[in-house]
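As agreed, record copied across for absentees:
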Amino acid sequence: MTTETLESRARLLISLYEQGESGSTVTRLAHDFGLSKTSISRAVNWLEKNDLVRREDTRHIMLSAYGQMLAKGYRAQRDTAREWMLLEGLPEEKADDEAMAMAIGAPTTISVIAARAMALHAIKQRLREKRDFSGSEFCAALDNGNYQVNFFFYRSGNGVFTAAPSMANDGFEQPADLDVKGDEGTITLHARAIERPIEEGSKRAVGVLRSLRYRQNGRVEDARQQNFNFSIPVSVLEFQTIGDGALYQGKALMQMACSGGLGYMPESDALFVMFF
């Protein structure tokens, strides 16, 4: 490790932060990092010049208020990145070496990605024993918050569902938003315009989803609509585990109609499948 890099300076800040109010000395830091006192002194002088540390006397090194804030953030990012790497199967020594560099290189990005990865890991642990379960059970296993999920519509005919894709897939943006609070959740689909040629001519018909309905307890209910966003409760979906707990899918029967007419989006049933 060289003390001329941002990473090594961040390590020094974290070390001082972890010493607490007692601070540290050049001799102790040199011992902790396996470096010469000259190298440590040069790094500490840089930190002091940039108002990150202060000296109580000629020997004692303390963090400034700004240094404490920065060190606390670096440590949190490092620990989050390390936990993420361990979950992904990296050896502990490798995770220790890489976590600081990742946190320094992209602290905000790493924090968001790693925190999400760990949350998903925890959720899958909660669901690992379940094979078939309700939408309410699914939401109960999730932490409160917003998730992005992909989905797919399968074609139906005479009440029989096939593996063929429905035209409805063209009418929505990917992904959908899944909002969870308590044991309740809502999936919001974002509609988009659909263009289709009219017979063999050069004219094209343009349409957009004008209604979305779902079946619940033998009844057909209207999805909540706001502009081109359509929301349905997660409780209407029936979930099952796919594979060895690596994927969960929720299914629900839906009906939709498009302003372009029958030829541009089905006005009959389609099977909605959400993947998590």
